[in-house]
Amino acid sequence: MLLGSASTSGRRTFNLLGHPLASVVSTSANSGLPTSDTTFAAVPSRGDLNVGCVVRKALLETLANELPQGTIRYSSKVVRIQNQGCTFKSIHLEDGTYLTTKVLIGCDGVNSVVADHLGFSRPSFVGRSAVRGFVHYEDGHGFDPKLFFFFGRGVRYGIIPCNDHGLYWFLTFSPSPQENNAAEKGIEEDPIKLKQFILSKLGKVPDRFRAVFERTELESMVCAPLRFRHPWELLWGNISKDGVCLAGDALHPMTPDIGQGACAALEESVILARELAQALKTNHSSDSLEKEQRRIENSLEKYARERRWRSVDLVSTAYMVGVMQQSHGAVMNFLRDKIMAKFLVGAQMKKADFDCGTLTASAS
Ligand SMILES: Cc1cc2nc3c(=O)[nH]c(=O)nc-3n(C[C@H](O)[C@H](O)[C@H](O)COP(=O)(O)OP(=O)(O)OC[C@H]3O[C@@H](n4cnc5c(N)ncnc54)[C@H](O)[C@@H]3O)c2cc1C
């Protein structure tokens, strides 16, 4: 599930957004009282920023349906990458197969093998974990189309209507050293324990919100530790090199606090498609392999320049927003609930308002 803005640019438009959401309502988990209600209309945008949930399965199916049959090869884990001369990359799969390619885009998530190949270190654990869940209401859930966020008591959680019948929720928490030793392992392995743990962390929350968590089926929850890439690595690292580049979580694993990880991956797919289409244009078909390779490398370098600062910005903002929204203690509670509430939501929404252009290449 991701929060995103629906773009109406480009030749084809797919409307995958669920219910358009009108505002973000923040509530203190300490007091149970609302601290801000920010409408999306108040966020400066280019006029086509619609916020809503996109169901991951629907997005993947829509993208896959656009490709010729047989383009996607499933269950093909990349285990090693080697340069073959200056032009080709040899990709070794777990089942022993070798593939040869001129371009390799590593979008293999937070444990990216391609990021290893480009010299990035493994993303760091941020000391927080996240649980996600989904609840279906046969007769409708009755919630307004708003994002409901709760902060304080060392947790940060939210409930988001996807449509009239589905609610998505998340909760992030910092395992205490004790929980780390005993309960944390148990939590990931035992959904009953996980649910009890979540219910114990909600704080002062109106009953109708608590009921969402109580109603969640055990198999509809997933829990995972949160990891991110240090921003300085993104400043200095090789986002692209010798026809290989990174996109999505492989490039910028970030905490989920501004809901932009998957949105940024989509931005990258648009920019990459545009740049590579330009580099591989058919009217260059008589060029030598070396010339073509140089064009590919130039296009990936241009892509890397476009994404470097955006990635640094998103990873850093997400981290800072998470620290402020999840921390506790009297001073932090006061600052977050009385002074920063609107600012933090505004920062989140501003990051979503990004124009990555259209798929059509500019005439150059
Ligand atoms: C609690 C939580 C809430 C979130 N909320 C939002 C939100 O509201 N909005 C938003 O935009 N983002 C959100 N995100 C982030 C979002 O889920 C990720 O940024 C997004 O899924 C990244 O997509 P990706 O394709 O880069 O990586 P993934 O989704 O991780 O996909 C990677 C793919 O690569 C494959 N793969 C892995 N290793 C290999 C290998 N060696 N060889 C071949 N294939 C491989 C995997 O099987 C997988 O299919 C949230 C994340 C969390 C944890």
Description:
By secondary structure, the protein is α+β, with helices and mostly antiparallel strands. Helix content is 37%, strand content 24%. It is built from ten helices and 15 strands. Mean pLDDT is 86; it is low at 4-11. Flavin-adenine dinucleotide is lined by residues 2-3, 77-78, 107-109, 111, 113, 130, 132, 170, 248-250, 256, 259-263, 265.
- Strand order within the widest sheet? 3-2-10-11-12-9-13
Encode the helix/strand succession as letters.
EEEEHEEEEHEEEEHHHHEHEEHHH
Shape, per Cα inertia axes: elongated
Which hetero ligands occur in this complex?
A: flavin-adenine dinucleotide
Question: How does the SSE layout of this entry go?
Answer:
Elements lengths: L1 E4 L17 E6 L5 E6 L11 E4 L1 H10 L12 E7 L3 E6 L4 E4 L2 E3 L6 H5 L6 E13 L10 E6 L2 E7 L4 E8 L3 H5 L1 H7 L1 H11 L5 H9 L5 E8 L2 H6 L3 E2 L2 E3 L14 H19 L9 H38 L3 H23 L12
Parallel strand pairs: 2-10, 8-15
Antiparallel strand pairs: 1-4, 2-3, 5-6, 6-7, 9-12, 9-13, 10-11, 11-12, 14-15
